[in-house]
Amino acid sequence: MRLLIGFRFAGCAILLPLLCTACSRTSEERKQKYFQSGQRYFETGKYGEARIEFVNAVKIDSNYAEAHHQLAETYLRLKKPEGAVQEMERTTRLQPHNYEARLELANLLILSQRLPEAKEEIDFLLKERPDDPAVHSVASSLRAAQGDVDAAIEEMRKTITLDPNRWQSYLSLGLLQARINQPDAAAKSMREVIKLNPTASQARLLLGRYYQSCNRYSDAESEFREAIIGDQKNPDLRAALAGLYLAEGKRVEAEVVANRAKQDFSENSAGYRMLGNLYFLSGDLDKAIAEYRSLNQEHPRDLQVKKDYIQLLLQKGQFSEATTLDAQILKANPHDSEALVYRSQIQISNGVTNDAVAALETVVKDDPSNSEAHYVLGVAFKKLRNAERAEYEWREAVRLRPDLLEALQALAGAALGRGDMDALDQEATEIIRLQPLFPEGYALRALANLNRKRFLLAEVDVRKAIEVAPQSSFGYVQMGNLKFSEKQFADAARAYQAGLDRNPNSKDALRGLISTYIAQKRVDLAISTANAQIAKAPSNSGFYDLLGTVLFQQRKDLSGAAAALTKAVQLDQNNTDARIKLGQVQTAEGHVDDAIGTYQQGIKNNPQEASFYVLLGQLLQWRRDWTGATEAYQKALAIMPENPLASNDLASVMLQSGGNLDVALSLAQTARRGIPRSPSVADTLGWIYYQKGAYRSAVDSLREALKLGQENSSPDNPTFHYHLGMAYAKSGQTMLARQQLQQALKRSLNSSDAEEAKKQLAELKS
User: Fold this and answer.
1) How far apart are CA 682 and CA 664, in angstroms?
2) Which are the contacts of 301, defined by CB distance < 8 A and separation ≥ 6?
3) Labelling 120: which of 55, 205, 258, 304 has CA 20 to 30 A away?
């Protein structure tokens, strides 16, 4: 039996290697089968199926380097860079001398901003293959990503030296040269590309754009047309030609190109969206919206059409339709970050800004690299009067996407708002670098120099703005501002009118023209000009605002001003300036109830606008509604804790209603820090000191109030004289007390204060 058992085990020992060899052969065949199947799917563009097959292959053999490599290539086609990097790293670990994989890995690491790891790969490649042009090409990409463009150019020149017939290298060199503003060198490189490869449409495109920047429009058109002939399937080339015509003021020709593109690219989104985009770029939002409304009906599944359409609706303030479309996107994909950003923009416009902030902070937490979300979050914080956080978000947006023009414009606006002309100059220069063919950057830089009295520099930029975009109003408006500053009113008027001729909806141009006429004391002409422009653009809320302002401030025509400002508010419920002035006109008319209603509606439409609460509080305070006024001022301070007007007025209410003097003092001190040159703030602070028995401090502040009032052309405020007289009396300065109290009684002091003043005078005589 033992022999039999031993024989049986011996047999198994002989069979086991045979079975393992068979299993190994079977595994080898299976992984090869999956790999070959994956290759067939890959070659026919079925990348999802290819991925499954390659994954099956590496499951069988985790050391199968070729399958890892192909899986990495598949992830690239599927636009999944993280998977591509992971698989390429596995490939290079298994095959350290697979130089092709190492080159691809280095490029992927650069694209993923993993620059230190990319440098390690490139250093290895430069050591192993110093004469490989492809290695120097990827080294150039690394230097460019690190911000050292000069070193990137040097590496690209080495690439060209090693392989002078590779047209792609000249293309990369030209792009780098354009990046550091070497247009002539870039053009020369592009011509080299065309010489080596006459069908290289991208090089012709860049060369055409260079010619366009030099105003060599005929040469630019030739390059664009040659590019189109060489690449009939690229809609970007048609867009470049249409853009050229638009820059030349040839709108009809531009529309012909865009219409033809719409026909030729009926299944290509970039092609059939071109006409709508052209209308947008030319400033015709109504036509752009109509075109996109039609496109959305024709291509209901085109997500880009829907998103572009939403953005147009948001710009036009058509929030209801935008909300409906955005809801459709979010229903299909609740995590669509762009749709979430649009929803937040709608919430900001509707005054639900805190909800927008919460949603956007979630978006940037889940997707920290979402530059658009950071930009809109900045807009939300600006709405909440958090200027510091707004600017931080805009800078983050620019860091993530340096060409995000809206964020740069917002930073320029922030610099202008705080009067920082050096920062405005810096932001404008960056806009010019990104968009050298657009006028806005030059106009903004001109404005910075205007405010610094650098008129010669301003004029250079103004003329450049007009040169690059002769059909735009930007340059002409700034030319008007320049001539106005130099008191050359006739030239200023001509420039502003030229701006209006090019953009009949330009509020800046009409404001400048009206200001010019008022400076010449031609108020009737200012009014007729506003009415004439309203006839051309009857839906422009800003124009009615300007007309109402002139009628109110220059003509004291209260009924006419009220009618114009009411129309401005009807056309745009978010026109804060018009609503504030409307309330002021209604108050001047004696219609205080109407003014209160106007500000209450303003709060309803813009609950984060602190000025409405302050103005409402002032009217309620005038009515001696201490509770209502206090509530209004407190809400203003909840929005803007350092608001000096709300702080001063709340302190005043507390004085009048017997509130806590210590709290009132703190509020008045906050107000004084915010507006130190305000006579009413100095008066409030001094009267609080008086009520607290600090008479010397009271005298100092109240004397300052009177002095500031005289400097601000309002020396006859009877309350200032009354308060100072009472403080003099308490501090033992009898003669000065009498003088001030008598002055107060001569100036229509209110009855209760007049009674106290008379009583105090009687005591001083005794």
Assistant:
1) 13
2) none
3) 55
Domains and CATH numbers, the chain: 677-766 (1.25.40.10)
C-alpha 29 chain-centroid distance: 58
SS3 letters for 8-32? HHHHHHHHHHHHHHHHHHHHHHHHH
The amino acid at 566: T
CA 245, CA 243: separation in Å to the nearest integer?
A: 5
Cα distance between residue 390 and residue 459, in whole Å: 32
Q: Coil, helix or strand for 703?
A: helix
Distance, in Å, from the CA atom of 731 to the CA atom of 744, rounded to the nearest integer, reads 18
Of the spans 137-151, 604-618, 676-690, 747-761, which averages the highest pLDDT?
Answer: 676-690
Q: Which residue type is seen at 445? A: R
Of 412, 467, 472, 537, the closest CA to residue 281 belongs to: 472
| Virtual torsion, Cα 716, 720, 723, 727, nearest 10 deg | -100
Tokens of 406: 């809206």
Dihedral angle of Cα 88, 92, 95, 101, to the nearest 10 degrees: 60
What percent of the chain shows pLDDT beyond 90? 59
Half-sphere exposure (Cβ direction) of 504: Cα atoms closer than 13 Å:
12
Band of pLDDT at residue 25, cut at 50, 70 and 90: low
Which DSSP state fits 177?
A: H
Is residue 737 within 8 A of residue 763, CB to CB? The reply is no
- Say if CB 87 and CB 64 are below 8 A apart: no
Mean pLDDT in residue range 597-610: 90
Q: pLDDT-derived band of residue 285, with 50, 70 and 90 as boundaries? A: confident
Report d(CA 716, CA 54) in Å as an integer: 89
pLDDT at 20 over 50: no
Q: Residues near 717 by Cβ (< 8 Å), separated by ≥ 6?
A: 679, 683, 709, 747
How many C-alpha atoms does 275 have within 13 Å on its Cβ side?
25
- Do the Cβ atoms of 220 and 244 come closer than 8 Å? yes
Place of tokens 């009877």: 718
CB 734 within 8 A of CB 764: yes
Alpha-carbon distance 756 to 60, whole Å? 100
Rounded CA gap, 646 and 631, in Å? 11
- The candidate with the shortest Cα–Cα distance to 323, out of 339, 338, 305, 303, is 339
How far apart, in Å, are the Cα atoms of 145 and each of 107, 116, 149, 449?
A: 11, 11, 8, 33
Contact 88, 104 (CB under 8 A): yes
Q: 3-state SS string over 711-736?
A: HCCCCCCHHHHHHHHHHHHHCCCHHH
Note the pLDDT tens digit of each residue in 681-710: 999 999 999 999 999 999 999 999 999 988
CA dihedral over 512, 513, 517, 518, signed as positive or negative: negative
Per the model's pLDDT, the better-predicted residue between 643 and 209 turns out to be 643
The pLDDT of residue 186 is 81
The residues, any chain, with a CB within 8 Å of residue 264's CB and separated by 6 or more, are 232, 238, 271
Report d(CA 599, CA 611) in Å as an integer.
9
